[in-house]
Each structure stands twice: as structure tokens, then as C-alpha cells.
Amino acid sequence: GDSVTQMEGPVTLSEEAFLTINCTYTATGYPSLFWYVQYPGEGLQLLLKATKADDKGSNKGFEATYRKETTSFHLEKGSVQVSDSAVYFCALRTNTGNQFYFGTGTSLTVIP
Amino acid sequence: DTAVSQTPKYLVTQMGNDKSIKCEQNLGHDTMYWYKQDSKKFLKIMFSYNNKELIINETVPNRFSPKSPDKAHLNLHINSLELGDSAVYFCASSQDPGGSTEAFFGQGTRLTVV
To answer: How far away is chain B from the Cα of A55, in angstroms, using its nearest Cα?
Structure first.
């Protein structure tokens, strides 16, 4: 079945460090891939998405590239800030499915 | 203008009670969802409606009953609440039931059963 496997946390980084959160997927068909961010006490917000192979999604300095050959969609940011502290979720949606499949979430804490 | 709004944001209630959570979206979307997030942040789909019709009904106790009076609203009623129902419940909506569009989430309802 369709699923997302996400790097387990928690992750703690110093400000201005490089961030990578790994995400791999299993899907039938041709999924769209998403990264969501959840700040404390809030709902999930879309961070970025990619809808086909080799697409790169980007937003607020975050990037992820849809790699069909490795079934991956790793999230990266070159220089994290304290305000990036949140839980990050990788998700997929197939073109035939009715739901979103979420990874287990990765908690990121950035310290000054 | 809030795109997906849920009420209440916090709900504390005793075991055995019946409670409802309301959700409304003003995005004109056709599909709405209920997700449950446990204490470890894991998100589990509960239900999905498309144009007021139930299209996903995961393995959820039948004490949970969704109701969609129109495609902009999806409410969740829970009977005979149990301690294990304590969680954050998220409503979400998307443009179509399958495809490339993202889901928009509400702020969540933190349910605490005591």
C-alpha cells in the first residue's frame, strides 16, 4: 500500500546549521509529494510540494526534489533559524487515491 | 478570513459523555477529512467526504459518527467518550478527492477526556 517513511527525530540544530530531513515513499501510480510544517499549538501548513518527478518544491528557504529513481523527497534548508523550530511532516497523495498519507513527523528544535 | 475553521479549540469532558466538533471551510473545496493526531504527533485518517458523500471510513469505533450537511461542513460526533479518545482532531479540506492539490488544515481541537 501507499506509505511514507520519514526520518525519526527529534533533531536539534544550532542556528545557521544545514538541515536535512529524509523522506522516502511507496506508492502505486504517480503521487504528488508534500512537506507540511506544524508549529506548536497550530494546525498543519503546507510548506512546499512537487507533483511530478524531478520537480523541486521550494518555500521560505526550504527545498525538496521529487526523485522517482530513489522514491525520495528529502527536505533541506541551508541555514536554519530559531523560528524554524516545529514538527515537519512528509506526505503523499496518489492521483487515484482519496487521502493523504503522512509520515510520522520529525520534530526540529533550533537553538541560538 | 480563516479557510478551515474548527470549534471548539479545546474540549475537556468526562468519560461517557457525548460531544461534537464542528468544521467549516470557505474554500469551495469538494473534499473534507477528519484526522486524529496522537500524543506522538502521528496523524491517522478517520473519515473523508466528497460532496457530502462518505468516501473513506477507516477502522474507527462506531462511537465516532461524521455528518456532512453540505460540502462546506463536516462535523464529528463522538458518543460515550473514553480516555483513549484524548487527542487532537484535525479537520482538513482539498479541492478534489485525488490529484495534486494540497490539503488545508484547521487549527485542531484538543480533546481531553477525564
So the answer is: 13
